[in-house]
Target: Mitochondrial tRNA methylthiotransferase CDK5RAP1
Amino acid sequence: MLPWARALRAAGLLRSAGAGAGAGAQRRAPRRERCGPGQRRWAAGPDLRHFLRAAGGEPPPGLELEPEPGPEPEPGPAPGSGRVYMETYGCQMNVNDTEIAWAILQKSGYTRTKRLDEADVILLVTCSIREKAEQTIWNRLRHLGALKARRQQQAGPPLRIGILGCMAERLKEKILHREKLVDIVAGPDAYRDLPRLLAVAESGQQAANVLLSLDETYADILPVQTSAGGTTAFVSIMRGCDNMCSYCIVPFTRGRERSRPIASILQEVRMLSDQGVKEVTLLGQNVNSFRDMSEMQFQSVAAPGLSRGFNTVYRAKPGGLRFAHLLDQVSRIDPEMRIRFTSPHPKDFPDEVLQLIQERHNICKQLHLPAQSGSTRVLEAMRRGYTREAYLELVHHVRDSIPGVSLSSDFIAGFCGETEEDHQQTVSLLQEVRYNVGFLFAYSMREKTRAFHRLQDDVPAEVKQRRLQELITVFREEAARANEAMVGQCQLVLVEGPSKRSALELCGRNDGNIKVVFPDAEVEDAAGNQAPARAQPGDYVLVKVTSASSQTLRGVPLHRTALSRAAACH
Ligand code: 5AD
Ligand code: SF4
Model:
């Protein structure tokens, strides 16, 4: 492309005829959007026509221009002056995205409010993974629509509504056209464009940017941490997914896999440590596929092997600094800070990662190993890249390498073609592995996925639900047994705050990420340096477990201690 044309495209003033801008398009620079002939313009500003007029020229053949602008709309309130109310739906990535989006808006002058009734802007950070998640957001939009209409009737300040994240990416056209009440739509890679989109919306127009990027990681945006008590924080290390599991919409809504440069991750973790944060969870759609290509000298490093018996739909990618290196560096920052990561793919667990987890006192002995099904036939249809046997071999290897490791998993009930026999295989996998934590879902067909195009969603809804209930029952029985094995043991608990049920109790998590509740009483300091005191959020307390259910451990506090000190005692 000619340099002038590249500059114009980067400025959002130009597009090639025929180049669509729908979900899934992979481009870098945010660009102005239109929804089709005769639609409103979404953004204001100079356009190519101004440029060509100034240069005395006509557009070159093959280039399509925006139509002549209509009369300028009435000026809205000054950009950047509004109060923003944000709501988050879906996974932890969305919690982190909310913080990134907010950091960007805060920088351009917006303030945040927790009160819906005083908001000038309402932003929903949305999820598309299952039909039910989207339905919840449609319902919420209708409620917000009524709120907006009431404001208008009462001649109150205008209310702008924005849809951010995966649903924005998937359903831009539908949201803008059918839900006229939505003012802005911003996909997961378009948050930097939010101030501009909001400025357009403030002038009374709809604005959208759903362009996916090959390299956006928001590396330089330090999210504003909002977790309760400031004890725990999430740090995004990579975005997107290349795995293309046949049921999953994520590669289409969040785009290609890309990793954030290690230097900026370490900087963020150091900053959190300085702020007193005691637990960091490294986040990504496939955290352990992390591959930082930003440093030249590591670009030709060979790809590490996959877990034994695993394969991928794409060729192993060489080069870059890998997850083991990142984990090593992050865990050295603060010996009093716990490190977790989610969500990994079971294919990327080389021995060096397992060894590191085993060796470092502050990397939690807790792994998420999403199995999805216990039937090799179904796993093949899901394109997961492993058999039941390979998965079980990995589980045994993980348990041998990290004694006492706590395991969690995701499962889908009623995937295309799943028979009763396949379902029983999943039941038996749950029994055989005995996970501590489980996330179980009924299959929900998503457009664009391989399953949508190639497979039949042939398990009736009531059968999916029945199978899901059976999986939940079996999972709970097994988790209760796994947790009961901890009764009588001492667990190191990072205190998060008061328990939800009783102000007389504190709640926190053990190393395995299981909730632990205990009385809020005065406890000794293990080192004997301080007088007995009640534990505070951010303290580590050794708790003797007295009872257990499938989800919670209960116990009595023994003493306050330090993470490094407690590790030395074991
Ligand atoms: N239907 C049901 N569950 C799904 N998941 C992903 N896509 C679907 C779908 N179409 C589940 C998987 C994944 C988790 C995040 O959500 O179990 O690991
Ligand atoms: Fe979806 Fe599979 Fe990627 Fe996970 S690994 S986000 S399930 S495509």
